[in-house]
Amino acid sequence: MEFIKVTPQYQNHIALIELNRPKELNALNLQLMGELRDALKMLDAEDSVRVIVLTGNEKAFAAGADIKQMAGKSAIDMYLVDQFSTWDQIKKTKKPLIAAVSGFALGGGCELAMTCDMIIASETAKFGQPEIKIGVMPGAGGTQRLTKAIGKAKAMEMVLTGKFISAEEAERYGLVNRVVPVALYLEETMKLAKEIAEMSPIATRLAKEAVNRSFETSLEEGLQFERKNFYLLFASEDQKEGMNAFIEKRKADFKGR
Ligand code: CAA
């Protein structure tokens, strides 16, 4: 892996992926995105990993798709390269995926953070969809996910003006879970990851699926989907362990079976 660093057991049951193209502010070229797709697929299949954290560095989570790589391309080149099929694969990650964002999360960087299930932001984080300033528009979900996250008025303004919002605004609008001091953003993300890693991995996976389904379907269909996942969990040993542990007043020891 040239442009990402993967630590499968960064902490117990928690994997860390660091975007690692610092000179280019982690601009998301095709190779980096391919590496990220492959790493997520590998970690998703690894039993000992229960939660995945994705981060950049203090200055940049990612400053967007690689403009230099795209600048000379034709529409047909873009169509044939089909870069967004990589993004479709990333979206299929089954385990909880948390973004730890500091500095720039712009264009594809903001879209990548929004593809994750939750975002912890450092107080220096800046979110934006500045594609309009270079004559294009978001292409990796920005118009959809941002609108769903923060509502039409704010999303429209960000997409049509390209202006950035601060971490504090992002928290106020509901884009991020919380804002923490820059020195602590990875540590705080790890705390959240640890909390989730202590739950039943099957339950977290099916619960994630159900929450995500709410974006894709009607309320009635979503409720049916939720119900089936709920019933399905009664086939797991973790459900017996969790409920017995409650009754016996002890901490549950979930195995992911
Ligand atoms: N693509 C390629 N290279 C990038 C890049 C990007 N998205 N963002 C930054 N870089 C490169 C710069 O070209 C520069 O390289 P050189 O030193 O070789 O010139 C290096 O990273 C450092 O960047 P700056 O010197 O510009 O740093 P700065 O602190 O002055 O500014 C910034 C930071 C405001 C983030 C500025 O770099 C910037 O505006 N970047 C582009 C942001 C952007 O437009 N993103 C959207 C891309 S399109 C997209 O993402 C489409 C999609 O939906 C998938």
UniProtKB/TrEMBL annotation:
Domain of life: Bacteria
Keywords of this entry: Lyase
SUPFAM superfamilies: ClpP/crotonase
Keyword Plastid attributed: no
Family annotation (InterPro entries): ClpP/crotonase-like_dom_sf, Enoyl-CoA_hyd/isom_CS, Enoyl-CoA_hydra/iso, Enoyl-CoA_hydra_C
PANTHER family given in the database record: ENOYL-COA HYDRATASE, MITOCHONDRIAL, ENOYL-COA HYDRATASE-RELATED
Family: Belongs to the enoyl-CoA hydratase/isomerase family.
Protein name: Enoyl-CoA hydratase-related protein
Organism: Shiella aurantiaca
